[in-house]
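Input record, target 12 of the design panel.
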């Protein structure tokens, strides 16, 4: 079996990344765009990101969350992750149920999604907001799927 020069990463059946592979020990492998992307994410306003994705429910949820001592950025990451796995509509519904009970927090939202709504995570295609990129689908080999007529 030949040694590969690329490493692919999957979340369930969803292909999420591909990087150069290093066979050295103790070497960090990083895509050159990642530090800039991370910096942009850290500078983004969590309030607007939550409102953009979840609308009025997101605004009310954020206002309630801001009154607590929880990390707004961590909650944004958690809610985004849940929306990717369960869908934005379902996550929004769970956020409403959690606020109605007087709680806030990603753990509560996930509990409602998994146990009260009895949903299973769906590994849907990751949406990047760019139609050309969103249309791509990859096989485990990293090559795009061929459409058959």
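The sequence produced for target 12 reads:
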């Amino acid at each position: 079996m030949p040694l590969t020069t690329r490493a692919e990463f999957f979340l369930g059946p969803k292909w999420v990344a591909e990087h150069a592979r290093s066979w050295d020990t103790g070497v960090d492998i990083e895509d050159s765009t990642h530090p800039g992307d991370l910096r942009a994410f850290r500078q983004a306003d969590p309030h607007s990101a939550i409102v953009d994705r979840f609308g009025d429910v997101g605004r009310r949820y954020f206002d309630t969350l801001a009154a607590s001592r929880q990390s707004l950025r961590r909650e944004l990451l958690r809610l985004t992750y849940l929306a990717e796995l369960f869908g934005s509509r379902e996550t929004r519904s769970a956020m409403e149920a959690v606020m109605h009970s007087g709680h806030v927090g990603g753990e509560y939202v996930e509990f409602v999604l998994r146990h009260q709504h009895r949903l299973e995570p769906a590994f849907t295609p990751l949406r990047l907001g760019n139609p050309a990129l969103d249309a791509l689908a990859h096989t485990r080999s990293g090559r795009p799927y061929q459409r058959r007529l």
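Residues 49-116 form one domain.
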